[in-house]
Amino acid sequence: MTNTIETQTRPSLSTQQLEVSIGPQHPSTHGVFRMNVVLDGETIVKLKPVMGYLHRNHEQLAENMSWLGSMPYTDRLDYFCSMTNNIAYALAVEKLMGIDVPERAQYIRVIMAELTRLVNHTALVGFLLNDLGAFFTPVLYAFREREKILDLFESVAGSRMMCNYMRFGGVKLDLPDGFVDCAKAIVDNYPPFLEEMERLLTKNEILMARCQNVGILLKDLAVNASVTGPVLRASGVNYDIRKIDKYGIYDRFDFKVPLGTVGDVYDRYYVRILEMRESLKILRQAFKELSAGPVISQKGLIAAKSPRNMKVPAGDAYGRIEAPKGELGFYIVSEGGTKPYRYHVRAPSFINLTILEDMCLGHKVADAIIILGSIDIVLGEVDR
Amino acid sequence: MGLASGSPTVDQGLKSELEKEGVVLTTLEQLYNWGRRSSIWPLQFGLACCAIEMIATACARYDIARFGAELFRPSPRQADLMIVAGTVTKKMTPQVVRLYNQMAEPKYVITMGACSIAGGPFKEGYNVLQGIDRFIPVDVHIPGCPPRPEALLDGLMKLQKKIDGQSIESAEWYQQGQKREFPIPAFGPKGLEPPYNPEVWKPREYEQKKQTEAEARKIHGTIHDPKQSAVSQ
Ligand code: SF4
């Protein structure tokens, strides 16, 4: 960019716009995201995201493999929340096949989904603070809590991060002995951790100065851009798929949907803290109501035993859930065979990222970094 | 004091006897390598899922600081070790090679996870590079998807052992005019040009592997072909 701007306040000084490429290897772009920004001094005039550095052909690969075969691949979409990804995909296929999910499996799914939400939001707060300049210390605390929940995941699924735990019509295995007690202990110990975090952060002078009124996302724009998840709710739109769609058994739980008022980075931070508290509420209810029974339906068991022969009736289905990052949907088209004809992922990170430029314009470079952090993207899901 | 590690002047028995009294006898080389291996600074560089496990390793529970490698540097100029953590796509490959070139000698590479070793679960993808060792030399491979933090620590210890075995006299980065830089491939509509670096990657092995793969697929296909199995029955 070579055109020169005469600033009005100081006509004697002429500035030149500068184009800077941030990423793909940059400590604050959350992976391999790249943005080309045009700067006037420190102020952002234009921002263009460049994607595709982690395009792993997820959808194309899924169309060449059995239905259950792409379940482990969904783990790797949003690698913080493998459990919720599994649930969304299972939901889509179950819709098409007309399989029921037994009571106990439904509860297990809710428990896993809410634990995942805790993991995701805790890690996000750590990384957001990282972007704000509090390098690594908040992440240490966040990962301390995350490790406890990952141990639970490991006990049920055998893997810390890539759980691959859901099956069509239920879950893979029943909970191991002592799981509920361990999970209860974690849930009971979470509020003190949240309070500690809030005591240090929520009313923190620096955090407020940096985050309040930065990157405001107006209601209308958010709805028009089909932004979902905590980013949308921070702008004050009451839209939570757990409440609207009531997929699974979410109508049985009593929880609130926290909403923001301004729609700035601070609101997005605070909405997530409140959401964690609501998740804890849901978890407590789920532990109380969890009853014995089968964890996978008969039809699902047959399908899980011989996944290569599993056929799905022709048609299309869209399964969606409220993932920690927003509406995660799987759109699948079947021709009645053992492979999907079309497989599409509606990735919340990708769609939430589209409004990045609108939020960043007029702010400084350092603000763009925290705005990006507050959207909460994971590149595995953005580029797929 | 001898320079080489196998210096005949140091008697092992005497050495251990002296150590009991608090006198440490060492060679310059051992001291030098001890210093090098105890402060490996990795490049802060994550590509995909494996990077999260790398961060977990750096956190309190696994504490990579015990091995002196906790200082993740965002700039390649200050880093000794590149941990390729995650899927290397074809679009990202030029950047990875460039980062390697920008690192100062001596430099080491660890591939973390199946993806950076050989493409991993996404091997069949059209945009996925089947192993970063096609372009840059790799010192330690850590398999897994993702490898557990313990595995990364084990890989780091393997690298430390390798550093211990290196000698100042014959280290290649001390030779005159030696700087390990590799040509950066170009990413275009037909993928990467060239598809591998012949200096680093041996094409014959690569072709052989492809051939055996094709054969395996044939056998696999016959087993699962219902018509053929009906005939054989
Ligand atoms: S090896 Fe597995 S966990 Fe690691 S980047 Fe590849 S897919 Fe992700």
Largest interface: A-B, 34 and 34 residues
- Count of DSSP H/I helices of chain A: 16
The low-confidence runs of chain B, each spanning 5 or more residues with pLDDT under 50, are: 1-5, 223-233
Strand elements of chain B, count: 5
Mean pLDDT of chain B: 81
Task: Tell me about this structure.
The complex is a heterodimer of chains A (384) and B (233). Chain A has 384 residues and is of the alpha+beta class. Chain A has 16 helices and nine strands. Chain A has helices at 58-62, 71-75, 82-97, 103-132, 137-157, 179-201, 205-211, 219-224, 230-234, 241-244, 265-289, 298-305, 348-353, 356-360, 365-375, 379-383, and strands at 4-6, 14-22, 34-40, 43-50, 166-167, 170-171, 315-323, 326-334, 340-346. In chain A, the strands form three sheets. Chain A has a four-stranded antiparallel beta sheet with strand order 1-2-3-4. The longest helix of chain A has 30 residues, at 103-132. The relative contact order of chain A is 0.19. With 233 residues, chain B is mainly alpha-helical. The longest helix of chain B is centred in the last third of the chain and has 22 residues, at 203-224. Chain B is globular, with a radius of gyration of 22 Å. In chain B, 35% of the residues are buried. Residues 1-5 and 223-233 of chain B have low confidence and may be disordered. Chains A and B meet through helix 1 and helix 5 of A and helix 3 of B. Bound molecules: iron/sulfur cluster.
Notable features of this structure?
heterodimer, A: 384 residues, alpha+beta, three-stranded antiparallel sheet, B: 233 residues, globular, disordered N terminus, disordered C terminus, binds iron/sulfur cluster
Briefly, what is this?
The complex is a heterodimer of chains A (384) and B (233). Chain A is an alpha+beta fold. Chain A is built from 16 helices and nine strands.
List the helices and strands and how they pair.
The complex is a heterodimer of chains A (384) and B (233).
Chain A: E1 4-6, E2 14-22, E3 34-40, E4 43-50, H1 58-62, H2 71-75, H3 82-97, H4 103-132, H5 137-157, E5 166-167, E6 170-171, H6 179-201, H7 205-211, H8 219-224, H9 230-234, H10 241-244, H11 265-289, H12 298-305, E7 315-323, E8 326-334, E9 340-346, H13 348-353, H14 356-360, H15 365-375, H16 379-383
Helix pairs in contact in A: 3-4, 4-5, 4-11, 4-15, 5-6, 6-11
Chain B: H1 12-20, H2 28-37, H3 49-58, E1 81-85, H4 93-102, E2 108-112, H5 114-118, E3 140-142, H6 149-164, E4 186-188, E5 191-193, H7 203-224, H8 226-232
Parallel strand pairs in B: 1-2, 2-3
Antiparallel strand pairs in B: 4-5
Helix pairs in contact in B: 2-6, 3-6
Bound molecules: iron/sulfur cluster.
Iron/sulfur cluster is lined by residues 48-50, 86-87, 113-115, 120-121, 145-146 of chain B.
